[in-house]
Amino acid sequence: MRGHRDDAYLSLRRLQLDDSRRRQLAAARRSAAYQGELRRVKTAEAQGVAPAASSPIEHQCQALWAETQRVMHQPRR
């Protein structure tokens, strides 16, 4: 999906990418809020800090993955 983030983002909302939407997204990326969040994420990535699982769905996904790993590594009978 590299190079297609705008298409993917807009397709979630069933919108087509045209020139006016490209300009809106470019303006949003130049905003101070976007730039600040981008710096925060890059700093966290550089420090190797992973966000904690905070949602119930995230907890369920982690539990399911752990169970899958446990079952896959059991000897077969």
Q: Which key terms come to mind for this protein?
A:
elongated, 77 residues, mainly alpha
Report on the structure:
The structure is a single chain. The mean pLDDT is 82. Helix content is 69%, strand content 0%. The protein contains four helices and no strands. It has 77 residues and is mainly α. 0% of the residues are buried.
Topology, pairings included?
Blueprint lengths: L4 H8 L6 H12 L1 H16 L8 H17 L5
The ordered string of helix (H) and strand (E) elements is HHHH
- Which residue ranges are poorly predicted, with pLDDT under 50 across at least 5 consecutive positions? none
Q: Tell me the distance between the termini.
A: 42 Å
- Rounded mean pLDDT score: 82
Q: C-alpha Rg, in Å?
A: 19 Å
Oligomer: single chain
Shape: elongated
Summarize the structure.
The protein is an all-alpha fold. Helices cover 69% and strands 0% of the residues.
